[in-house]
Structures are given as C-alpha cells and as structure tokens.
Design a protein that fits this description.
Radius of gyration: 35 Å
Structural class: mainly alpha
Order of helices and strands: HH
Shape: flat
Strand content: under 5%
Number of strands: 0
Number of helices: 2
Length: 108
C-alpha cells in the first residue's frame, strides 16, 4: 500500500498526538515569549560585556598622549549660592515645585 505522504517527505503528515493532518501547533503564551526575549537579551548583554572585558585594551598610559596640560597646582573654583525660599509666593512655590525645606518650622 502506498504511503499517504507526499513524494520526498519522510513523515505521513499526521501529528502523533491528534491523528489529524494538521500540526495543531499553538503559539507560546505571552509570558513565555516575554521570558524568552528577556533571557536572550540578558545573554546577549552578558556576552557583549564578557567580550569587551576580555578583548579591549584596558591599559591606559596618559603619559603618551600629546597635548596634555603639564602637571601643576591645578585650579579650584568656589561656587557660592543660596537655597533660600524667602520671598516666594505660594504660586511661585507651586510652579517651581519647591517644598518646605527640611527642618524648617512652618509659619502661620
């Protein structure tokens, strides 16, 4: 008796579980697809990190760079400001999203 499979096919086309001619495959659940995608992204990120950590040159010799400023005393900057909220109206405080400073005593 000839096989019901098309020429060149090795299976009969019948699925072992349901006995029908269709494969009856269902899509994985949304949760399973999310977990697979997250796992692939995690593995790709970890692989990229390991590759970069092992392949890239981590030795930096700043002495060989030309155009660097010679060693010296350095420069210090003093930035002065105030965090006072005195004089702000209730509307200004609302627009600027400022709250009462911590430790401040509410005024009545």
């Amino acid at each position: 008796m000839p096989s019901p499979a098309a020429p060149g096919r090795y299976d009969s086309g019948l699925h072992a579980r349901d006995g029908r001619g269709s494969r009856n495959r269902h899509r994985p659940s949304r949760r399973r697809r999310f977990l697979r995608t997250a796992a692939v992204l995690l593995l790709a990120g970890a692989g990229t990190y390991v590759w970069a950590d092992t392949r890239l040159n981590q030795q930096v010799d700043l002495g060989t760079l030309s155009g660097r400023v010679p060693r010296g005393e350095g420069t210090n900057y003093l930035v002065v400001g105030s965090d006072s909220r005195e004089g702000l109206s209730q509307q200004d405080r609302k627009e600027l999203n400022t709250a009462r400073p911590r430790g401040a005593v509410p005024t009545r």
